[in-house]
Every structure is written in C-alpha cells, then in structure tokens.
Amino acid sequence: MRKAICLCFALLLVTQPAFADPFHHPSGEWREYSRDWLAACPDTIVEDSVGYYGTSCFASTGSQDLNGAGQPNYKLTMLLNRLDGELGLFFAVQADTFEADQARPVVLAFDGERPRSYVFGRDLETRFNTINEYYFVEADPLIERMIAGNNLTLIIPVTGGSEPQRRVTLSLQGVAASLDFMKAYARRVAQY
Q1: Positive or negative torsion for Cα 21, 62, 53, 27
Q2: What are the average pLDDT values for consecutive 10-residue runs of the chain, which has 192 residues?
Q3: 172: exposed, middle or buried (C-beta count within 10 Å: 0-12, 13-18, 19+)?
Q4: What is the pLDDT of residues 117-150, one digit of tens each?
C-alpha cells in the first residue's frame, strides 16, 4: 500500500506542468513559464516602437500543430501595455498553407459556455501593420473569462486549405500567473 501511494505521488509530480521562477533570457527579456503559457517583459521600453514588443509585456500559448519554422500554427497572446496599463488580446494564424478568411466570423467558445461570433472589422482588427494577428476590440471581458476557464476553442475560417475552418483548443492554465508576472515585471527595465 505504501509503495502504491509513493508511486502515485511520484507520478503526480512528474505529470504536472512545471512552474518556473522568472529568469533573464539571453535575448534581453525577463521570462516565466506558467503551466501552458510563456510570459515575457523586454529589458527596455521603446515608446516610438512600431509593434507591441517595444511597449508591452506579453504572454502566449500556442497550438500543438506547427508550421515549417517550428512555430505554432495558432497562437493566443495577452498584452500589457507598460505605458498605460491597458490589456490587449490577439490570436495569430501562422500556418504555411492557409490564412484566416476575414469575410467570415471567428467563433470563440469557453468550456461550458455558449459560443460567440467575432466579426473582422467590428470585433477583430489588425494593428501595427500586421497581416496575421487579429486583436479583440474588447479584450478585458475575454481575459477575465480566461482567468476563470480551463480552455477555449477558436473556430477560425480559413482560405487556402482543404477545410473551410480550423478548430483550435487552447489551454488557459497559467493565464492568471502570466498576468501577475507581467504586472510585476512591467517596470523592470534596464533603462527608461
């Protein structure tokens, strides 16, 4: 009996996703892994930056299927603007053979909730001269639901593939810890 308990405890430790202490990455950012999310805050703030990287801390999770560069075909990213504290949320379609079809809505469903549609140009927009990152216009309510959830499913209409849409389920395990990290490290900069 004692062996069985020890074995169960050992399996529990091995199978649980790791929490890591924040560390400084050689690329010049503080990072922390929180379950299925990776959060990062760059060492510097660049106010006139063209993209979000210069002014934001960010945290992402991605799909298991990868593109030719070894990156997730789909990625969900939260942003914390270091200058004004505003939160943002976007998903990216990084697949090699297809792209998002902006003529049809994206459907988002949290576990156990009714799915909701998001229309490109009204509920979703592109920013920073990107062509594959789609920002939710109203991010705060979605992020609050992400904190309370286990996973969310995106149904993304696509062109260029054999199917008209892709269904992607992403883990929300680590969202709250990633937000805490971003808030704690938002002003930890080498110079500003």
Answers
A1: positive
A2: 39 42 78 92 81 85 93 94 92 91 96 92 90 94 94 93 90 95 80 48
A3: buried
A4: 999 999 999 988 788 999 999 999 999 999 999 9
**Number of structural domains found in the chain:** 1
**CA 175 to CA 36: how far, in whole Å?**
8
How far apart (Å, rounded) are the C-alpha atoms in residues 92 and 98? 12
Query: Is residue 162 one of the residues assigned to a domain?
Result: yes
Whole-angstrom Cα Rg for the chain: 18
Q: Look up the CATH number of the domain holding residue 148.
A: 2.60.40.1880
3-state secondary structure of 157: strand
Answer yes or no: are the C-beta atoms of 108 and 91 closer than 8 Å. Answer: no
Q: Residue 26 sits in which domain range?
A: 20-185
Predicted TM-score (pTM) of this structure: 0.83
Give the pairing of strands 151-159 and 106-110.
Answer: antiparallel
- Name which of 148, 150, 152, 147 is nearest 175 in CA terms: 147
In a domain, 11, yes or no: no
